[in-house]
TrEMBL record:
Name this polypeptide is given: DUF4102 domain-containing protein
Gene3D superfamilies (UniProt xref): Integrase, DNA-binding domain
Domain Integrase DNA-binding: 129-189
Coiled coil: none
InterPro entries xref list: Integrase_DNA-bd_sf, Integrase_DNA_bind_dom
Region Disordered, annotated ranges: 182-202
Native organism taxonomy: Bacteria, Pseudomonadati, Pseudomonadota, Alphaproteobacteria, Hyphomicrobiales
Regions of compositional bias (Basic and acidic residues) in chain numbering: 189-202
Organism for this UniProt entry: Fulvimarina endophytica
Entry superkingdom: Bacteria
Amino acid sequence: MVAREGMPVKARKNPTDEQLLRRMQHEPIAPHDPRARNDAYWALRHQGYPAALARRALRNTPPRFYREEVKLSGEYIDDIDPEDLLIVPKVNVEVQKLAVLVRPDLTEEIALNAPAWATEYTIWSEAISGFGVRVRPTGVRTYVVMFRIGGRGPQGKISLGKPGVLSFDLAKRMAREVRLEALSGTDPRPMHKSGELLRRAK
């Protein structure tokens, strides 16, 4: 115990590894941050790409940085007086480029052919927030949509149907109906169970 101004206070404990990891995930990335070299997500974020695209990066494959020489034509400065040039342009420039494997956006073909992994995963759509196809280790694929009633509170999930049985376009329309119903403050699950969701989307 440490006394300060007559008030006893507890000694501060060092943060745990989990706490440090959470802090790192929320801190802005610096130019020489090792995460940009080792993690595909942070490599894209460091390059200025939006989080929605960076989340599609395959993080089990490290990013690859390479240098490439870009050859520029000098013809565009032939008609300019050299005295008018503030900066002498370089004709051959070596630039650093980044190569990252990114999951493609969700399409019907991807939903039908998504491979099964050792653990369950979901391929999310960029066009419709919360809509995706869940792939189980058994190979079973299901269209799902996530929602929050009124835009707040606990997150709910509705399984819409299986690719091949339910068309991709119909699944997207159902997902939009679910999201709209939830945003209006109504639980969309009873509507789905009664078949009203399917009738609205058709």
